[in-house]
Design brief:
- This protein is 0% helix and 48% strand.
- It is globular and about 40 Å long.
- The strands form 2 sheets. Strands 2, 4, 5, 6, 9, 10 and 11 form a 7-stranded mixed beta sheet that branches. Strands 1-3-8-7 form a 4-stranded antiparallel beta sheet, with no helix packed on it.
- The chain has strands at residues 3-7, 10-13, 18-25, 33-39, 46-51, 58-60, 68-73, 78-83, 92-99, 116-117, 121-126.
- The protein is an all-beta fold and 127 residues long.
- The mean pLDDT is 97.
- The chain is built from no helices and 11 strands.
- Strand 4 (33-39) and strand 5 (46-51) form a beta hairpin.
Length: 127
C-alpha cells in the first residue's frame, strides 16, 4: 500500500510558477517510480511527467516540456512538480501516482501502469 497526498495547487495568473508536492507513505519510497497526471474538465486524464525510483531518469510530456520539471527527494518521501510559464491550458486537477511493478522499466507514462493515486490538487490559471 502507498498513500499519496498532493499539495501546492491554487489559483495563479498566466505566466506564474507553482510547485506541487506529493508526500508518500506506506512503502519504501525509493522502490517506487512516480508520475504526475492531470485532468481538465471534460477531458481525459493526461500524462504530465514521470521519474525513476532513484530520480536519475525523468520524462515530461511534450505539452509541458521546457516549462515543467519533476523531481523527488527520497529522504523526504516526496515528489515535486515544478511548473513555470503557466497558461490557461494548464488548468486541471493534478494527480500524483505511484508504480510498484515496472520491472526493469525506469518510469511509466501510461496511467494503467500506476497502482496508487493521490486525491488530486486543483491548479487554476487565469489569463
Amino acid at each position: 500500500q502507498v498513500q499519496l497526498v498532493e499539495s501546492g495547487g491554487g489559483l495563479v495568473q498566466a505566466g506564474d510558477s507553482l510547485r506541487l508536492s506529493c508526500a508518500a507513505s506506506g512503502r519504501t519510497f525509493s522502490s517506487v517510480a512516480m508520475g504526475w497526471f492531470r485532468q481538465a474538465p471534460g477531458k481525459e486524464r493526461e500524462f504530465v511527467a514521470a521519474i525513476s525510483r532513484s530520480g536519475g531518469v525523468t520524462v515530461t510530456a511534450n505539452s509541458v516540456k521546457g516549462r515543467f520539471a519533476i523531481s523527488r527527494d527520497n529522504a523526504k518521501n516526496t515528489v515535486y512538480l515544478q511548473m513555470s510559464s503557466l497558461n490557461a491550458e494548464d488548468t486541471a486537477v493534478y494527480y500524483c501516482a505511484a508504480a510498484i511493478a515496472l520491472g526493469s522499466r525506469y518510469f511509466a507514462t501510461v496511467a494503467d501502469d500506476y497502482q496508487y493515486w493521490g486525491q488530486g490538487t486543483q491548479v487554476t490559471v487565469s489569463s
